[in-house]
Structures are given as structure tokens and as C-alpha cells.
């Protein structure tokens, strides 16, 4: 009887030991899984490295014509860029050729095809197009009402940043009393830019959200539903997307001043940010007597997106 009791006790002890070991192994596994999913030290953060030669910003200028074509004034502004940058290719897209381009390069992205071809608001499509073009081929996008100043595009990037720049942006507003945003009338990017990919995805999700909010299809969206264009596809949305991408790279920290103007170009990851005087000298006022760099382009604010449908005036 005593022997049976010992065997029973030994069996209970073995079972208890097995339970303890099993629980310990589960706890270790669970903590390991939790750390893998949520611990900052296990998140792979891209580091700033020189961009391969093939991924530098191509020497190409992109333009998009409206239904009315190219005016003499726009032609004159564009000529300043072409004449001062003779080593740059240039391409003009029409509505028809833009549609062909998007279908060709994004046939595998149903979300892009559905959004782009169902939108009936021209200005939204024009904004999206510039992001798509730059993502596929890179180069410099320029609105039709932008003229180039004396500095060639090849010299916009300081020498010390030329091997590490994959995107060139300029502040549109660079003053402390107004929200800051990047200009989108001139954008430079390398092909396949992950920052541009963030912009595209953010714009698509914003348009889809607006359609859901109004209980309609994308094709049924019209101007009085979307609010301010700059918040949907324009500079505000673009700026938020770029900064969100940079914050990811920098684990939530980005060293961009919030009050004082930026006087010199600064690079974050592979994004070169130019001061307000570079792309928008006319609307960024600096202290008298302060020396700052040259303006690179002039935006003439001759945009034709003026009618209630988000298209050109007749």
C-alpha cells in the first residue's frame, strides 16, 4: 500500500512538473512573439545610404496639357526651363496619352486604375498623374505656369547631397504663422521612390473615404463633396504624406523647425528640402538684410482650375 502511494505521489509530481515546464515554454514563446511584434528594437528602420546611380533623379521634365492645349504664355514659361536645361528630355502629356500611360504602367494596381479612371474631377486626376509619372520614371514635374530662373536644375542639389538625394522639394509656405506645406508645382523624384508610394496610397485612401462618407461611387464625387482640393490630392495631402514617410524612417522624429524659416537646403533620409525662396520666393518674406540663396523657379499662378467642376474655364 505504501508502494502504491509512492507511485501515485510520483505520478502527480511528474504531471505537475510537466505542467510547469509547458507553462514556462508557452510564456517564453509568448513573450518572444510579443517582442517581435511590438518592440522598437526589432523594427527594421531604413538607414540613409547613397542612392545607386540608376536611382538618382533622371534628367527629364514632365508637363501635362489641359483640353485647351498650350497657350503662348505657357510656352514662353516652359521655354525658360528647356533652354536653361538643354541636357534634359521633356514630355508633354495630353488627357488621352496620360490615360494610355496609366493603363500601361498600373494595370496590376486595380485600386489605381479604378480611382483614376472613375474620377470625373480633372484637378484631382492632374494631381494624381504627377505622382504616378514620378513614381514610374522619376524626373521633374512642372506645372505649365512655372518658369525657370538662372540656376540650371543640375545645380539645385548642393554638391554634398548629390549622391544621396532621391527627391527634391521646396517649401511653398515657410513662415511660422501659417501651416507649412511643400510646393507641388515643381517636384523632383527618383523612380520607385518609397515616399512617392506613400503619397499615392494616401491619396487613394482619401478619395475612397470621401466616397464612403457621401455614400456614393468615386465616379459620383463632385467638387462640393471633397472640400478643399489641397487637402485631398494637393499640397497639404502631399506634405502630410511625405512627412509621414519621413517620420517612419526616423522612428517618429523629424528635425524640421516649426517656427523659424529654413535658410539653407536640408536633407532628411533621401529627401532634399529647399527653403521657401527656392520655389516660392514671392510669398516667403525674410528679415531685411538677411542673405539667402537664389530663387530657382517662379510660379506665376496662372492656373486654369477655376470652374465648379474642377476643370478649365471655357
TrEMBL record:
GO terms for biological process: protein N-linked glycosylation. The keyword Transmembrane applies. GO terms for cellular component: mannan polymerase complex. GO terms for molecular function: alpha-1,6-mannosyltransferase activity. The chain crosses the membrane at residues 9-29. InterPro entries: GlycoTrfase_DXD_sugar-bd_CS, Nucleotide-diphossugar_trans, Och1-like. Keywords: Membrane, Transmembrane, Transmembrane helix. Pfam families: Gly_transf_sug. The keyword Transmembrane helix applies. Belongs to the glycosyltransferase 32 family. This is Initiation-specific alpha-1,6-mannosyltransferase.
